[in-house]
């Protein structure tokens, strides 16, 4: 039998190396060069002598550490700022105010953040102000400002319905954008005619600007018709409040305006710059895996679909390495990333997409001594749990069975958290202060 302790150590080293590549403390200093008056961010250059004020705004799980890293570069030049982040994700800032708020469902602090951000925009909006917006995963929930006649309670309801339905993030955020006065390009519209640069850590498949954080600083490609299709697809119309249902119906009749589109003049003064993505983390993880002696391949950075089906699919590829040496011969490391979904049944337990994927994978590889998987959220959170994900191998299911724990039943009940907690194989990292979706790391070892 392979050295399990050594291989699990390798899994963690590969994961944390990938994480380090997309943390604000890495990407902000490497992407920004400041020599007054010129501020260079990637390929964009801004002459700060043209601005009387620099205002820093932001929302997302990584926004606090992004703000801290930016303060280290621009501290003496920042007029004021405010960012909203998830509870427990704050850090010490000097000039930029922090609000902690609810995720994945917005709360009263999320609303407060949206209101205060708009107030700062109104206070400093002019051609002589540079707004810097720090955007990362979680922003859709951490900064909300519903359209008139929509309450926070209604926003919370539809968010919960969408999350439980199995809708993907593109679909969820299309609805969010059309109910918001700050997302879907509305923030950029509010900031105009000021100059706006948005620094982005992408947490969506394909790095689509209008989906990341529900696209507050970019033109929206989704429509009211898209929203109707999504509500039909997941049978949500009858679950909406009467006022929310009426709101959508009025919009479909053409009585409500669309979200700002690419032809809007406000976007002429916006630069959106993606500083980190899932692929960037995978590339660095792959480099580490090679250093550890594994032949390595990145399968995809766009893994999506039902989590348990993705787990089965990845297990089939892992088993193929042992059977036919494809796509690589052991010892090898297969990497992928993305964001799967879990369609919850009425009766369900506790877990997250990574834990569900890992449990499905474990059931497929039971009693195979040479296969290992780490599946985790790069933000350190998997679903409504304190775990980032889980680590499994061929002994996971047999070991659980010895304790009279039936992995198949736990999977059917979407109760993966309690399964892994019972056998002490949860991966708990705490907040990572970044978010580029999920990573799956498979190691296949040689036969003894």
Automatic annotation (TrEMBL):
Tagged with keyword Ion transport: no
Residues annotated as domain MOFRL: 332-438
Listed GO MF terms: ATP binding; glycerate 2-kinase activity; glycerate kinase activity
Recorded GO CC terms: cytoplasm
Coiled coil regions, renumbered to chain: none
Cofactor: Mg(2+)
InterPro entries: GK-like_C_sf, GK_N_sf, MOFRL, MOFRL_assoc_dom, MOFRL_protein
Domain MOFRL-associated: 11-248
Reaction it catalyzes: (R)-glycerate + ATP = (2R)-2-phosphoglycerate + ADP + H(+)
Keyword Transferase: yes
The protein's Enzyme Commission number: 2.7.1.165
Highest rank taxon of the organism: Bacteria
Keywords, ordered alphabetically: ATP-binding, Kinase, Nucleotide-binding, Transferase
Family, similarity comment: Belongs to the glycerate kinase type-1 family.
Matching PANTHER family: GLYCERATE KINASE
Subunit structure, as described in the record: Homodimer.
Name of this protein: glycerate 2-kinase
Organism: Desulfonauticus submarinus
Organism ancestry: Bacteria, Pseudomonadati, Thermodesulfobacteriota, Desulfovibrionia, Desulfovibrionales
